[in-house]
Amino acid sequence: MKKQLVTLALGAALGLSASAAFADTLADVQAKGYLQCGVSPSTPGFAAPDANNNWAGLDVDFCRAMAAAIFDDPQAVRFTPLTSKERFTALSSGEIDVLSRTTTWTMSRDTNLGIDFAGVTFYDGQGFMVRKDLGVSSATELSGAAICIEAGTTTELNAADYFSSTGMEYNAVVFEDQDEVVKAYDDGRCDVFTTDSSALAAERLSLANPDENMILPEIISKEPLGPSVRQGDDLWFNITRWVYFALLESEELGITQANVDDMLGSDNPGVRRVLGVEGDFGTAIGLSNDWAYKVIKHVGNYNDIYERHVGANTPVGIERAGSVNDLWTRGGLMYAPPIR
Amino acid sequence: MTDTSFAYVRDEMLDEQPAPATSTGVIGWMKANLFSDIPNTIMTIVGVVFLYWFIPPIFNFLVTHAVFPWSVENTIDACRTEEAGACWIYVVDRFNFFIYGFYPAEEYWRVNICFLLGAVTLVPLLWPDLPYKGLSAIGFFVVLPVATFFLLNGGGFTGLAEVPTEKWGGLTITLIIATVGIVASLPIGIVLALGRRSHMPFVKYVCIAFIELWRAVPLITVLFMASIMLPLFLPEGTSIDKLLRALVGVSLFSAAYMAEVVRGGLQALPKGQYEAADALGLNYFKSMYLIILPQALKHSIPGIVNNFISLFKDTSLVSIVGLFDLLNTVQATTAQVEWKSPHQATTGYLFAAAMFWIFCFGMSRYSMYMERRLDTGHKE
């Protein structure tokens, strides 16, 4: 009996590892009829319920883009809101097919957790907010400032690193949680408030007088956020990665959600390849040749997504032009290998 | 007999006089209750000062400075001013989300029918004077769960659009989890309690093992295991609905607690009751059903309802496994940038607290009513 149990357990363990190694996520997803996508429960601009109680945000739209590429239907996706603690377990246990949850790409996560990052959908980093009447226009002028910080976070460590490396003095005013930090800054207990720049813009609206505050241009830490998938399924990884690249490539070629149908008749061979008019690029990733067309048609290119959820005209209001999140052709970091 | 009249002797009864002003009315009440001695006087003064400090700002926050839909300026910009209080327009705008979660708006009627059905079948069960007890019991315990499942989920033969459980949320899911937990945990708990007192070693030790195992683990761990770890042990491709996993987890967890509460009630019964049941020649099930359990459960009402209330509040823990219960929907909307304002989060949490309070207070009052009703004179 005991021996049988051991055999059973061994068999189960082997079965698990085997299924992980040879998993065909694409076939599973196609059989289910929808993509299961892990998102953040509530991060403004990235994943949060919108006014009509639908999921919306940059991370959410990435999953919709994948669903569009696979099913020609951006609604063929179900969202699993995940806390930061459970997100990686949920991915490796197969609860979700792709994790698109403001997750910073770091070496330890990429190498230790059995996951692969497909790309960077948003370059985040820690920034500073100050009151306009302080008369400061750059973080280099912050010497001697009192800074409101959340305790025990990388934010606190990043600030310490930054100020010691630039040889400036500062007074840390430390609080236990983000809401307290914002409140303290609002009450004038410190001159500067620091956190990730994507959150900074949204938190500005919690202040009594948002317009009297400004975000400084300096970013003092690297937080590349991107979607990740389970390791060991190269086809699925390729799909995820090339959906991401297609969003950038189409923007670079000037294909937008609005003009994608006109672009089908374009003479530009690059455009024709992306939209599947020419060449045979979809079959290699198990999809139809017009997979990128479907993505752009239903969800738009990277710029469409960005401007819809986090751009300057949204409440989150993160200016893209000139930032690291702009295309490489305009001085940003967004760069995709060509589709050819 | 001489007719004498002494000036100092009254010859008629005095009219009743009102009690002295210092011992009746407001003053008397205050003297007796608020200023009876020096410590009480000090306490009263401190209390009044305390109220004076706290009530006006709270009232101002909730009412005077709050932004209501009928206020003159009822846009989000009014909430963003420096002197604005509670931002009620945000709660009103997001109200549907708090109640239904991600459920599609055109299908709300399905949830409403479930609420209605629940109320219609539950009221006769709770109100002793109403007839049709058996019918309502069947309605509540059999028809309601089945109807709720098919109505809310749709698809299949129902001809309704399918709404997967991921889209259920808000108060709906809170009530589903609480109701299932409450309804499932009491019978399971009773069985476990009886099992633990059984003379059959196998039954006894299985029950003890079950109770001690579940009681020794925090609910968060149970939910986390159920939602995240369980799929690791299941064959690839099998997936059990996340809500179902949470329901099973919550039910078994609270059943273990319930078992101990009921066991307390069983132990409070004098041995004579058991012996009397035996003497009447009743078999085990009859003696339990007719004699022991009615008394034991009556003793345990406060404990049982205590468990129900804590279970109701514990449902908010399912947010950590990504289910959108009432609290989680409130939390999710605090991130909605279009409603960002200084007091948005506070207002949202106040609303959630008020909802939880209404349900828990209702349960508590009902249990007190039940205790009085079932009180058959064992108390001094």
TrEMBL record, chain A:
<dbReference type="InterPro" id="IPR001638">
    <property type="entry name" value="Solute-binding_3/MltF_N"/>
</dbReference>
<feature type="domain" description="Solute-binding protein family 3/N-terminal">
    <location>
        <begin position="34"/>
        <end position="263"/>
    </location>
</feature>
<dbReference type="Pfam" id="PF00497">
    <property type="entry name" value="SBP_bac_3"/>
</dbReference>
<keyword id="KW-0732">Signal</keyword>
<feature type="signal peptide">
    <location>
        <begin position="1"/>
        <end position="23"/>
    </location>
</feature>
<protein>
    <submittedName>
        <fullName>Amino acid ABC transporter substrate-binding protein</fullName>
    </submittedName>
</protein>
<keyword id="KW-0813">Transport</keyword>
<comment type="similarity">
    <text>Belongs to the bacterial solute-binding protein 3 family.</text>
</comment>
<dbReference type="InterPro" id="IPR018313">
    <property type="entry name" value="SBP_3_CS"/>
</dbReference>
<dbReference type="InterPro" id="IPR051455">
    <property type="entry name" value="Bact_solute-bind_prot3"/>
</dbReference>
Automatic annotation (TrEMBL), chain B:
<keyword id="KW-0472">Membrane</keyword>
<dbReference type="InterPro" id="IPR010065">
    <property type="entry name" value="AA_ABC_transptr_permease_3TM"/>
</dbReference>
<feature type="transmembrane region" description="Helical">
    <location>
        <begin position="216"/>
        <end position="234"/>
    </location>
</feature>
<feature type="transmembrane region" description="Helical">
    <location>
        <begin position="172"/>
        <end position="195"/>
    </location>
</feature>
<keyword id="KW-1003">Cell membrane</keyword>
<keyword id="KW-1133">Transmembrane helix</keyword>
<feature type="transmembrane region" description="Helical">
    <location>
        <begin position="134"/>
        <end position="152"/>
    </location>
</feature>
<protein>
    <submittedName>
        <fullName>Amino acid ABC transporter permease</fullName>
    </submittedName>
</protein>
<feature type="transmembrane region" description="Helical">
    <location>
        <begin position="108"/>
        <end position="127"/>
    </location>
</feature>
<dbReference type="Pfam" id="PF00528">
    <property type="entry name" value="BPD_transp_1"/>
</dbReference>
<keyword id="KW-0813">Transport</keyword>
<dbReference type="InterPro" id="IPR035906">
    <property type="entry name" value="MetI-like_sf"/>
</dbReference>
<comment type="similarity">
    <text>Belongs to the binding-protein-dependent transport system permease family. HisMQ subfamily.</text>
</comment>
<feature type="domain" description="ABC transmembrane type-1">
    <location>
        <begin position="171"/>
        <end position="362"/>
    </location>
</feature>
<keyword id="KW-0812">Transmembrane</keyword>
<feature type="transmembrane region" description="Helical">
    <location>
        <begin position="346"/>
        <end position="364"/>
    </location>
</feature>
<dbReference type="InterPro" id="IPR000515">
    <property type="entry name" value="MetI-like"/>
</dbReference>
<dbReference type="InterPro" id="IPR043429">
    <property type="entry name" value="ArtM/GltK/GlnP/TcyL/YhdX-like"/>
</dbReference>
